[in-house]
Every structure is written in structure tokens, then in C-alpha cells.
Amino acid sequence: MTNKKKYYVVWVGQKPGVYDSWQKCQEQIKNFPSAKYKSFKSYDEAIAAYGGDISDYIGKSTAAGRKRSVSKTTANPVKGALSVDAACSGNPGDMEYRAVWVDDNVEFFRKGPFSQGTNNVGEFLALVHAIALLKKMNKNDVPIYTDSKIAMGWVNKKKANTKLKKTRHNAVLFDLIDRAEKWLKANSWKNPILKWPTSAWGEIPADFGRK
What we know:
The chain is an alpha/beta fold. It contains 7 helices and 8 strands, in the order ββαβααβββαβααβα. The chain has helices spanning 22-29, 43-51, 62-73, 119-136, 149-157, 171-186, 198-201; strands spanning 7-12, 17-19, 36-40, 82-90, 93-101, 107-117, 144-146, 193-195. The chain has a 5-stranded mixed β-sheet, with helices on one face. A 3-stranded antiparallel β-sheet has the order 2-1-3, with helices on both faces. A hairpin with a 5-residue loop joins β5 (93-101) and β6. α2 packs across α3 (62-73), α4 (119-136) packs across α5 (149-157) and α4 crosses α6 (171-186). The protein is globular. The termini are far apart.
């Protein structure tokens, strides 16, 4: 019988967050004696638990925790979180990216436009820029939301697997990609990177509103 997929919440560990495999979860709790973590049957339940009260889950059944917390957490993002997004006019085309605080929609940073970019590249750069800037500010506990699974994957692999071709018009953009990849390989971070559930919450706050 095929095992059903589980999602893992790490509240306390190397890098707190929501993970989609036991192996990734283990990487965060190994050699971390005070680690706090738990598995869930769905991504929505895991997100709810991560944004909820840890005491509602640790030492109690998932069902019990869900009854107390899921109703009050799934409808709202984690407090104090940052969101990132990108916009591109054409593929490739003029691209820009930014970060916005989820609680009050105040813009944290905005970069671009860059010539001959893509949305995926912008999402990746926005995420790395946010991680690096928060680390520099010593804000290691601030969660970062993105609506791009591709950007999350590139950050996890520390490599932008873009098919975009380098030209004299987007050389600056490729320099940023190179710098971002080098930063990821040379640094560690603790900020949870979370997937924004657009179907449940609507467009991510950092969205440029150009659809």
C-alpha cells in the first residue's frame, strides 16, 4: 500500500517552517535537542498549525488541535509575516519584484524594472532578497510568503533553473541571479518560507495587481 503524503511543521528547529517530506523535517530537527515538530495529513492543516498555538498540538492528537485552532488560523496569514511577488510584461519582458508586509501592506522593498526578465526569475530574486535583508537586520523569525512553488524550489536547491537566455539587454539581471545563488550557498537562514494559498486567501499582498 502506498503511504499517503504528509506535511511536517517544525516550530522549533534549525529552520522553523512547513516541510513536505520527513527527510526535510529531519534535517531541521537533527542534533537539535529542544526541537518541536509534528506531522499533518494536509498542507492546509500544517499551515494552520504553524500559525497557531504550539500548545494546541504538541502532546495532543492532530484532530484535537485542529478542532481548537484550524478555524481561527486557516483564514489568516501568520502575524508579522512578509510577502514577495514579481510582475513581468511579456515572457521575457520588463520585470520587477517587491516585498510587502502582510499585516499592513506597507512596501518593504521594490526592485526593477529589469529588461528581458521572467516572472520566475523575479519571484526567485524577490525571495532571496527578502531572506538576505531580514538576515542582515537580524529578523530571523519573520516568515516569508511566496505564491511561487518554483521560487521555493530554486531557493531550496540554491540554484535558479531558468531557461532564460542571457543577452546584452539582461546582463544585469544575470549578475543578480549569480549573486543570489552565491549568497544562498554561502549563508544559512532561519526564516520560514511559506506557500501563500491563493485559492483560500486571494492574491498575495505583494501582488502588483496587473492581471
